[in-house]
Amino acid sequence: MHHAIRMGLGLAALATALGAAAQNTSNLQGISVSAAVDDPNAAPPGTAAALAPAQGNMAELEPQSVLNRNYIQTIASPKDDYLAVLELTPSAVNASPNGAGLSSKSGTVRGFQDGEYDVTFDGIPFGDPGAFGHATTAFFPAPTLDAVVVDRGPGTASNLGNATFGGTVALYSAPTTDKPSGQVSAMFGSGNTWQLAGTANTGTMNKIGTEASVNYTHLESDGLLDFAGLRQDNVLFKIKQPLGDSTTLTLVADYNKVKWNTFTAQPTKQTDRFGLDFGGLNNDPNSQGYYNYNIDDRHADFEYLQLHGDYGTWRLDNKLYTYGLRDSGPGGVDLLGNTPNKALLPKGGVPGAINHSIYRAYGDMLKAEKDVGSGWLDSTLRAGIWAERTYQNQDQITVDLSTMTPRVLAGTPNANIIDTRQHTNTTQSYVEVEWRPIENLSIVPGIKHIDFDRTLEGVSNFLPVGGAGHFSTTLGAVAFNYRFSPNLAGYAQWAEGFQAPKVNILQGDGSNVDPQQTKNYQAGLVWKDARTVADIDVYYIDFSNLVSSVEEPIGPGGSLISVFVNQGGVIYKGIEGEVTHLLGDSGFSVTANGSINSAYSKTTGLQIANAPNATADAGFIYDKGPLYGSFLIKYVGTRFTGVGETSGATYNANTRLPTYNYANLNIGYRFTPDLRLQLSTNNLFDHRTPIQGNGATTNPTFYYLAARNYTLQMTYTF
Question: For the chain, how many structural domains are there in total?
């Protein structure tokens, strides 16, 4: 998606110039730095905690949904990306018009958009340094993941990242094991989709305790949209080496290569003609929509070296890391077919552009904690610092796609649309204390200081750009957790959030742009016993200077781009809950979660863009003997593609998207404890509702829920 957005941003000015011519939280593998996350894979088999699709944890300090390995392997689709994995949790929405894992388009949590919440891998934040967004198909597909935790809030002071105010999606890799083990699987599904995946653990290899593991995934698909194919390879390697009795050194390296055809939303006149599976692509080499002219080729890597020590009353964790993404490919100027080739290349050819971009981050996270005091002074002191430097280079030139050679298009000054270089420096440091004055009560106050610098230079949209910005703040947080009984815990939190402006402010007049800031208030209850897991929470978020994005066409009928809009202040508030309950010894469990969400502008009183007013998920799970399965229905309430309006002279009905729902059915059979076969069906009843659009007053464009699709997977564990 990032390549498509970058291509669109660069082509925005191009289309304008062509107008006249064309008008015709916590770290499972490190130290605990806030509420300790329950091990999501440690629940006894057959209990509600083991079977629940999502659940809270007894020690949390803010609302969480924990997704364990059982959920990832038996309920989520094997081809999922991490947004598709989390889409059944409260307040979460993920739209995948090409099918789950084959290019997600809009993952939101409580209405916070991609780039407004953090994504971490084994505790390390990552993302595009320009807009803080995430290339979801390029990092960590579902077979590489051991657990996912959706943390709906800014966390305590020790929660680090560039967008923590919107929450954190925490991804975790599987630990190495002391015994040799592994798993292999083969999957085939709709859209000529197939996948091979495997994991192998060496066990302890020598007298010094070395353990290693490797995970490999290969995925190919023609896509569920016409000509929207994808090919992906991912390999993740981990080696863990004890250094004495109390210290371990862990090396993790992940490499991902993905290539896919970039499609776009279409107006209703196009879908009426070509069907709901049309995304602007075809097999005509003379068309700007030719699938071989619209390609995103990504190469991503992520590496870290972790030193972890547990020395009784004090603990130390340091991660030295780097990650990066290289992104390139061509694209047509107008996939909606409204701009004739000759309007842009009068002497013949197919007008388009080629994009090249690369970013890389280098960083270090140092965290330390020490237990002090006793009795009513029993406490754990924590301190840490995160430092990261990034660079990002991007260039984009106009070309004749039929020859892939540079060409100056009619109405443009030259072929060089974009040639920019940017750098960021981030430093975040914190001090907090977990105070336990009485049994079962934890109080966690803390402060965090943030410094963020960004520089940009070069050419964007044919014009020189450049500038620098420095942003600094100190944030406070305090949270409480009280264990009323072994089965019931309650928590409450107040915390401040912050995000520095994105790079787009340096491409124009950013002198009046202030950082986004929040004040978060949350409270909730968690219940857990062998038969029932349940949690409920309420939240109130006072958001100032919200910068949101809407999708608009590039020029007359052109492709979509993301345009950022300052919507001023916003009040987010709502109630969320989830429950799973075993029905006796029948093997059946009922499960449900949902949310009632409100996100309204403080100045206009209107609902903000892309924020649903409610979500729900309900169904049942069966697991007894060799047979297992699940039937779950997801509901997404009303949301708007722009600022929401319901009446008045300026009301535009195209901004309002309808409610929708889809059902997923999984049926599995264990031939032996180690061999199983599973059939999964997504969107069982084939609902094809609009799920995203640009909200244009005339001739609006839409994405639709992907058609009913199947996967059949055989898995062998050894």
Answer: 1
